[in-house]
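$ ./design --mode recover --in tokens.txt
reading tokens...
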């Protein structure tokens, strides 16, 4: 057995009303906050005003940047970083879901490094984009996250995903300096997620941890987080989806999301994420989680068909967490029960859609195949079965 476990440094404040502590926590890291949000949801729900109030209460200055869209782009990040630099901000706060957190982390990188001779373009810090990428160092501005969804686990990871609209590339990147210093998980915010967003972000939790379980390598410190997250998702996501006011379901999904982030910090995602990044890189309007859902079944079937006994055993672990089998085995029939369970689960959440239904065109398959191999080599290498381009092409066709 051989593994590497990098302990996250994030301080997690979990519980109703924890947003009130944002100002006092931010004051430990700076006096001039760069507040990153999406365009309007946090404002409409009243949490933006509360956030500003808690920052004002501690005498903190702030600049609000509300131009983040789903699948945030290099252009958005670079614009935000220039504004943060111009305003002299010294700490970055993300208020929102995965896109806000991704953008905030990336902005913190550029705004922290640029005054010390670093590039003003986030693309230059992404190793998947070029071999001579600029290092991400402790010059990165301190980051604080307030998550509004239970999905990406980004509040406890050092990773972000940014899309380059010029190339369609959507690589993940990161490093220890991108760990949030503080993460606030307040279920009062999570209660406001509409059903569709609840389903999508909840499936993102499942996708991370299920890929963590089956990815290459030994996972003795990641598996407990991942397996418990699957169990929680299978039990509580349908409840939260059908009854958004169920506080226990919201809290348990937030716990699952946190477990997923911790698991994903230790273990890796695989082919599903590699291929989906190519999908939403080319089609930014496609939700990341829905893209993952559309690709899930054919990739699972591919891995089980071509995988070794260890791969079959790992898929049977997923089946067991869904309650499909009582005992983990290395039998193909038990591994395939994870596929049956997920197929039923996607139907309950109304996520059982093909890529074509999402607006993806067959003519894009070739370029998406190339994008998968160009920008997501790491995830391909961690997949339990290493595909070639023809394999990926066939999986895209099956997912259409």
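writing sequence...
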């Amino acid at each position: 057995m051989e593994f590497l476990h990098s302990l996250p440094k994030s301080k997690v404040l979990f519980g109703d009303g924890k947003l009130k502590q944002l100002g006092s926590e931010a004051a430990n890291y700076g006096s001039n906050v760069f507040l990153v949000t999406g365009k309007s949801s946090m404002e409409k729900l009243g949490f933006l005003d509360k956030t500003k109030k808690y920052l004002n209460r501690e005498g903190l200055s702030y600049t609000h940047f509300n131009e983040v869209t789903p699948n945030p782009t290099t252009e958005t990040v670079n614009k935000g970083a220039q504004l943060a630099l111009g305003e002299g901000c010294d700490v970055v706060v993300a208020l929102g879901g995965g896109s806000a957190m991704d953008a905030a982390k990336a902005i913190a990188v550029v705004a922290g490094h640029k005054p010390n001779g670093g590039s003003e373009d986030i693309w230059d810090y992404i190793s998947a984009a070029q071999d001579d990428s600029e290092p991400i160092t402790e010059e990165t501005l301190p980051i604080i996250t307030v998550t509004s969804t239970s999905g990406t686990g980004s509040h406890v990871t050092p990773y972000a995903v940014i899309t380059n609209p010029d190339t369609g590339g959507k690589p993940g990147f990161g490093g220890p300096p991108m760990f949030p210093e503080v993460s606030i998980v307040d279920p009062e915010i999570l209660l406001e997620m509409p059903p569709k967003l609840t389903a999508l972000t909840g499936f993102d939790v499942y996708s991370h941890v299920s890929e963590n379980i089956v990815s290459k390598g030994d996972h003795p410190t990641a598996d407990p987080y991942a397996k418990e997250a699957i169990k929680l998702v299978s039990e509580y996501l349908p409840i939260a989806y059908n009854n958004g006011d169920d506080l226990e379901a919201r809290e348990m999904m937030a716990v699952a999301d946190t477990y997923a982030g911790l698991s994903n910090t230790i273990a890796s995602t695989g082919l599903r994420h590699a291929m989906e990044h190519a999908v939403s890189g080319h089609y930014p309007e496609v939700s990341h989680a829905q893209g993952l859902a559309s690709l899930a079944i054919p990739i699972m079937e591919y891995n089980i068909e071509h995988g070794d006994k260890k791969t079959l055993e790992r898929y049977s672990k997923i089946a067991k967490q869904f309650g499909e089998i009582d005992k983990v085995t290395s039998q193909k029939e038990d591994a395939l029960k994870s596929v049956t369970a997920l197929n039923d689960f996607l139907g309950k959440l109304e996520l059982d859609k093909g890529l074509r239904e999402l607006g993806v065109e067959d003519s894009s398959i070739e370029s998406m195949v190339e994008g998968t191999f160009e920008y997501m080599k790491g995830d391909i290498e961690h997949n339990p079965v290493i595909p070639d381009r023809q394999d990926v092409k066939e999986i895209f066709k099956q997912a259409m």
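exit 0
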